[in-house]
């Protein structure tokens, strides 16, 4: 297996002060469009679709600025797989920067109201959709299913070849990435690592259960992981100007760009924990950069971030 992403040492005066060793796993650089955890999660899903004779296309779900929808549209375009996106919200979102690209790559967009969207995990709704779109392979929101777990688990295989470490930190949205890391860690035959997930949405306690359900049976006994639910900063895609500035400052010092919805929220949680003395002296920590930089455009479009934010990012 080839190594998909580099491991980059990070330097920051706080790391020296607290005597910790930090590296970032640059999954954001795997692919310019299908970046980060999207690449990992879609890999075996799309392989499955291509190998099956009776699948006509892929159907999945997402919000109107979804990284998953954006990446899926491009990945299907590349492989010539028809795809449908069920999008939460109104038709007018079709012209936003994320969905304009998804359409451009051939994804058919169907907008559903929020009440309908909430049914996206319900068996009866999924059965209804399957009837409506026969022979379409339904991929859950965020791409988080068993095939995604297999792809994400490969991050651990790669990391174990690249370095020794104590702790790995990842942002958490739907839970698939953390579940994949837990699976990879227990299956790796190497020393177990401490795995920390930073929930980016409010009231995310329920995700502990979701993650447990995504774990294959023998992996359910791996208890060396934790979901941190107090670092959401007000909720999904919510952050203060101060938060955004702290991320920018971190980007400037380390030379790596993090965005404020996923990877940047992980960075803020990590910095808070560091200042609280949570990590041991000498602890070797990996930050997983899960990509998602396309979302910056949408945040500027909605006025959540100032355009200068974009211009401070390096090419
Ligand atoms: C860029 C990025 N990072 C992290 C996550 C969180 O991953 P997961 O949904 O698997 O918890 C997402 C959402 O899927 C994402 O788009």
**Name of the top-level CATH class of the largest domain:** Alpha Beta
Query: How many DSSP E strands?
Result: 10
Summed up, the helix count is 13
Strands in their spatial order, largest beta sheet: 1-2-10-7-8-9
Fold and architecture overview:
This protein is of the alpha/beta class and 315 residues long. The protein has two domains: 7-34 and 145-312, Rossmann fold (3-Layer(aba) Sandwich); 37-143, Rossmann fold (3-Layer(aba) Sandwich), CATH 3.40.50. It contains 13 helices and ten strands. It has helices spanning 13-18, 37-51, 67-79, 97-104, 114-117, 123-132, 146-162, 176-187, 206-214, 241-254, 263-275, 295-301, 307-312; strands at 7-9, 21-25, 57-62, 83-88, 108-112, 136-139, 167-172, 194-199, 225-228, 284-288. Strands 1-2-10-7-8-9 form a six-stranded mixed sheet. It has a four-stranded parallel sheet with strand order 5-4-3-6. Strand 3, helix 3 (67-79) and strand 4 form a beta-alpha-beta unit. Helix 2 (37-51) packs across helix 7 and helix 7 (146-162) crosses helix 8. The radius of gyration is 19 Å and the shape is globular. The two termini are 29 Å apart. The model has no long low-confidence stretch (mean pLDDT 94). Bound molecules: pyridoxal-5'-phosphate.
């Amino acid at each position: 297996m080839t190594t998909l992403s580099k491991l980059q040492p990070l330097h920051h005066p706080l790391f020296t002060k607290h005597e910790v060793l930090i590296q970032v796993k640059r999954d954001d650089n795997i692919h310019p469009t299908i970046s980060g955890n999207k690449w990992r999660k879609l890999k075996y899903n799309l392989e499955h679709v291509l190998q099956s004779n009776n699948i006509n296309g892929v159907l999945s779900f997402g919000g109107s600025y979804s990284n998953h929808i954006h990446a899926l549209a491009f990945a299907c375009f590349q492989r010539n797989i028809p795809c449908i996106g069920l999008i939460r919200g109104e038709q007018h979102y079709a012209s936003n920067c994320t969905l304009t690209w998804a359409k451009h790559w051939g994804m058919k967009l169907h907008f559903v109201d929020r009440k309908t969207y909430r049914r996206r995990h319900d068996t009866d709704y999924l059965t209804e959709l399957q009837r409506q779109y026969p022979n379409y392979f339904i991929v859950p929101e965020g791409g988080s299913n068993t095939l995604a777990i297999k792809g994400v688990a490969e991050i651990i295989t790669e990391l174990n070849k690249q370095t020794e470490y104590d702790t790995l930190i990842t942002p958490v949205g739907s839970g698939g990435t953390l579940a994949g890391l837990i699976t990879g860690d227990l299956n790796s035959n190497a020393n177990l690592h401490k795995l920390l997930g930073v929930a980016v949405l409010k009231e995310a306690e329920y995700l502990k259960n979701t993650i447990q359900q995504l774990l294959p049976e023998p992996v359910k006994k791996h208890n060396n992981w934790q979901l941190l639910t107090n670092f959401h900063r007000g909720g999904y895609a919510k952050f203060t100007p101060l938060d955004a500035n702290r991320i920018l400052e971190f980007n400037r010092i380390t030379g790596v760009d993090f965005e404020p919805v996923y990877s940047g929220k992980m960075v803020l949680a990590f910095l808070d924990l560091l200042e609280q003395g949570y990590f041991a002296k000498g602890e070797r920590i990996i930050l997983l950069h899960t990509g998602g930089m396309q979302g910056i455009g949408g945040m500027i479009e909605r006025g959540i971030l100032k355009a200068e934010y974009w211009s401070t990012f390096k090419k």
